Amino acid sequence: MEDILRSLGFLCLGSRLKRIGEQLQADTQRVLDGLDVRIQSSQYPLLAALDRLGALPVGELAQSLGVAQPGVTRAVSLLTELGLVEVSPSNDDQRRRIVSLSANGQRLVDTAKRDVWPRIEDAVADLCADLSGPLLGQLATIEDRLAATPLARRSEKAGAVAAKAVAR
Amino acid sequence: MEDILRSLGFLCLGSRLKRIGEQLQADTQRVLDGLDVRIQSSQYPLLAALDRLGALPVGELAQSLGVAQPGVTRAVSLLTELGLVEVSPSNDDQRRRIVSLSANGQRLVDTAKRDVWPRIEDAVADLCADLSGPLLGQLATIEDRLAATPLARRSEKAGAVAAKAVAR
DNA sequence: CCATGTTATATATCAAGTTATCGTTTATCA
DNA sequence: TGATAAACGATAACTTGATATATAACATGG
């Protein structure tokens, strides 16, 4: 069965990037499910931004994540309900609402940084290893590799390697 | 303002690909709006698939587009209402519903192939010209270029070049 | 100093993808 | 051949992005 997006090349690059991104996110979610982590993979960038940049108002958070502000507002309410972030008013500007990690959120991030993110990063790096040449070719290779060996399998391998490294 | 997805590298590649894809599609939509075409850019792959592969049942259409079947079912109902595709029962299997371009749909595709798609393809090709090196670097370059010169401007340039070529 | 404009966030609605599940129809095999 | 399994497409519910707009707080010029 011909892959139309692939055949259309640059014409549908946007759709194709979205498609690959969605598959990667779904696969990442499967890795997380296997690791007993209960939040959505899509929330990690927000938590990582707060961890890396410290407390931020909604708008700057949106900018640093490269998404539109309403998306951040929604994600923040969700994470607030989960008790992972907290919102406090700004002292000097009552319009601004400063978002920060809660104690629980910080704990989750610390754990993830140690136990989870390296696994995922290794798996994706493995997926993208030794790519070269034009962009469309690299994307095709990624799709092919993803179909041949799902990310979860790559993360097991990465985990095994990591465990071996620790055991040494 | 630090771009977190970029800093996180492979860890959030999925989110990042989605983000770039969405921006590309939104930009493409803007080009289409300027060209007096009234359908969503995201519907073009489906129409292109039917044009290229001929009439197909829903499931095979989904497979050739690389999306899940319910998405195709919804897109087909939408395009049927717009009068661009038609659905007919299969002779030999009552479960299958064969999707094909209507006369209007075929006309639209023919026009698009001649007047619209080349513009978009040139603009995106321009965006991706002379990329080299590792994937993450290529993606960063694409984002930078897109921020510097939006796709619509690139398509104007491409249109001018095409017009000049014709005039010769 | 207040009317007006701007900025920050929230809300509403839309778009396009997903998974899960259901009803039909077809296929299989004991 | 008839019971059961598999395949196809539709529907429902959810996710995660978008845009447009409303509301409230701040800034500023006359």
Automatic annotation (TrEMBL), chains A, B:
Start and end residues of each HTH marR-type domain: 10-148
SUPFAM superfamilies assigned: Winged helix' DNA-binding domain (SSF46785)
Segments traversing the membrane: none
InterPro entries (alphabetical): HTH_MarR-typ, MarR/SlyA-like, WH-like_DNA-bd_sf, WH_DNA-bd_sf
Signal peptide stretch: none
Pfam families according to UniProt: MarR_2
Domain of life per record: Bacteria
Protein name, as recorded: MarR family transcriptional regulator
Species for this entry: Mesorhizobium dulcispinae
